[in-house]
Amino acid sequence: MSAYVVLIKERTHNEQEFKTYGEKAKAAREGHDPEPLAFYGDFEVLEGSAMEGGVILRFPDMDAARAWYHSPAYQAARKHRFLGADYRVLLLDGLPEG
Fold it and tell me: What is the largest CA-CA distance in the chain?
């Protein structure tokens, strides 16, 4: 059953750190092969707090998503995300197929 990581960028406060995060996060995907379903494209907030952008990544299952998130490469990238922007990050289990 697929799993989804949703990253919601609420506010950028350091463009250089955010750029570094983007570079390192891209490299951290290697070997985990998430499928980007949405990646900072156009959006509209219908309800809730304002946001600057969002990403949705699909993984084969929850364990694969956790393995990517907790990998040393993503944890190193994540430090720059904390310095560059405020985010909410969610891990959602998908519905059974069929």
Answer: 44
Structural domain of 22: 10-48+79-85
What's this model's pTM, rounded to 2 decimal places? 0.93
* pLDDT mean over 59-65: 98
> What was the pLDDT predicted at 71?
98
Residue 30 domain-assigned (yes or no): yes
What are 89's two structure tokens? 């990050």
30 to each of 24, 27, 80, 84, how far by Cα in Å? 11, 6, 18, 22
Q: Which of 11, 16, 4 is nearest to 55 (CA)?
A: 4
Q: How does pLDDT run across 12-60, given as a tens digit for each residue?
A: 999 999 999 999 999 999 999 999 999 999 999 999 999 999 999 999 9
CB 73 within 8 A of CB 27: yes
- Domain assignment of residue 92, yes or no: no
- Say if 19 falls within a structural domain: yes
Residue 3 lies in a domain: no
